[in-house]
Structure formats: C-alpha cells, structure tokens
Design a protein that fits this description.
The protein is α+β, with helices and mostly antiparallel strands and about 280 residues long. It is about 30% helix and about 30% strand. It has helices spanning about 65-80, 100-115, 125-130, 135-140, 175-180, 205-215, 215-225, 245-255, 270-280, and strands spanning about 5-20, 25-45, 50-55, 85-90, 145-150, 155, 165-170, 230, 240-245, 260-270. The two termini are about 15 Å apart.
Length: about 280
C-alpha cells in the first residue's frame, strides 16, 4: 500500500471561560474551537511487522512520550492489530503555543492508522480513545469547529464565518499545568447557554494571568492590537487577530517583532483531514 499523507490542523480558542474547578483537579470550561487550514503533516507507511517507528524533522520530538507514538500504540493495542507502521511527522506548528498541535497530531494518527490498518472503527470509538491522550484530541478526531464544555470534550458543531487570522507566537513556552494550578486563575465565569454563544461577550480567562507571568505574551499583544483586536489562544503563548483580507494580514506579518514567529491561516468549519481521507478512497 502506498504511503498515506494527512494534515494535522491547528485550532484557536476564540474564547476560553473557566466556570469552576472540579474535585479531580481539572476545570470545567466553555470554549469555542476554531479549526484552521494550517498545521503539521504526517505520513504513514505500512510495515509488514508490528513495529511502530517515528521520524520527524525535529529530532527532539522523537521520544516515547510523543503523542503520535502514544496514539499509534493505543490504537494497535485496542484493536489487537498485528500490523505496524513508519510515521513521519513534519512539525510546522510552534510547540507550547496553545494551538493544539500535539493533540491534532494524535488525532490524525488515529484517523490515519484506522484507514491504513483497515480497522473500520467508528469516529465515536476513535474520539473516546483520543480522550485518553488529551482533552483536545476528540475535537480533532471529529474535525469540526465546535462549542466545547466539560474539560473540552463535550462538543457541539458551530458554523462560523471563515475568517482570515494572523497567528503570532512569542519566543516563550507557557506551562499549561502552571496556569491551571495557579491560585490567581479566574475560575468563576458565568456559563453561557449554547444558543447565546455567538452573541456573548468573549474573553480568555487565562490571559490576564499569562500576561503577568510571561511578559513576552503581553508585549506581543500590545504590538498586535495596533493592527486589529486580538487575544490569546488557550493558555498561550500564541495570540491571534482576525483581518478582513490577505493584504492587511500580510502587512502586519511583515512587521513581526524579532522575537516572534507568525503565520496567516483561514478558519474552516471542517478539518481538511476529512477531504484528504476522502481522496484516498
């Protein structure tokens, strides 16, 4: 069988409201996940033996803890599959930016190997497996822009205008665990009813704390707001703004501060991974 190459797209949190802390230490939250048309890329090649091997353009990511390897092994174990694969991860998204790259890589691995190994598992089953790897993985398995509740795993599809975004990542790595464990994190935002999501006042409850703990994030937001209203995605460090057209987004990107990296992406209501999978039929 020829190699299977699939995208693993990024996401933005258009808002992130934390409504309470749970007894298990996790947080109940509400967020609006916007999928983008930009991300990493994975290539899967069938092996005759049962080995699973990972290669990557960033050698630091070739570890047993990589979510790609963990997803592949989880799926192999769950399905009792005797086949293996060689996986190549072309890492393009910045790490630690709150763009969901690792979770998306894991989801694409589940989808890709379900196809390559001809397992025919349902999307519901793959999403449940994905939840064992991370709260965001089911979003990328299901592959639609969504309003999320719970710890981020309760998803309802939302159709949004497919806007153009400039996504900027300052040169710092925000610890998600540190943010969610911090005593100063806002944890009492009032829940929004689903029918009011698109008209509600959006904000990111993590942003004030992250701006204080990571000055580079605050400085980057101060720079970006000169071009368009902006905010942070997830727990950061990436920030974003919507632009009316490619020209204005490109103009801002050209002025990018020296300690940042950035890219322009379009919001999509369905992940391109589904079109890529359909092309293999």
């Amino acid at each position: 069988m020829k190699p299977l190459t699939l995208p693993a797209v990024a996401k933005l949190n258009l808002f992130l409201h934390i409504t309470s802390r749970r007894a298990d230490g996790y947080h109940n939250l509400q967020t609006l996940f916007q999928l983008l048309d930009v991300g990493d890329e994975l290539t899967f090649q069938l092996r005759a033996d049962s080995d699973i091997r990972l290669d990557c353009n960033d050698p630091q990511l070739i570890t047993e803890q990589n979510l790609v390897l963990r997803a592949a092994r989880l799926l192999q174990q769950y399905s009792d599959c005797r086949l293996g694969c060689d996986i190549y991860l072309d890492k393009r998204l910045p790490m630690g930016g709150g763009l969901g790259g690792g979770s998306s890589d894991a989801a694409t691995t589940l989808l890709g190997l379900n196809k390559l190994w001809q397992l025919n598992l349902s999307i519901d089953t793959l999403a449940k497996l994905g939840l064992q790897l991370g709260a965001d993985v089911p979003l990328f398995v299901r592959g639609f822009t969504a309003f999320a509740e719970g710890i981020g795993e309760k998803l309802q599809p939302v159709k949004l205008d497919e806007k153009l975004y400039l996504v900027v990542t300052p040169n710092c790595h925000v610890s998600t665990a540190e943010v969610f464990q911090h005593p100063d994190l806002i944890r009492n935002s009032a829940p929004i009813p689903y029918k009011e999501v698109l008209t509600a006042d959006w904000h990111n409850d993590c942003q004030p704390l992250v701006e204080r703990l990571y000055p580079n994030v605050a400085i980057t937001l101060q720079w970006l707001v000169e071009y368009a209203p902006c905010q942070m995605t997830g727990t950061g460090a990436s920030v974003f703004a919507a632009f009316p057209d490619q020209t204005s987004a490109q103009h801002a990107l050209m002025q990018l501060p020296a300690n940042c990296q950035g890219f322009i992406a379009r919001g999509v209501n369905q992940s391109p991974v589904w079109a890529a999978l359909a092309d293999t039929e």
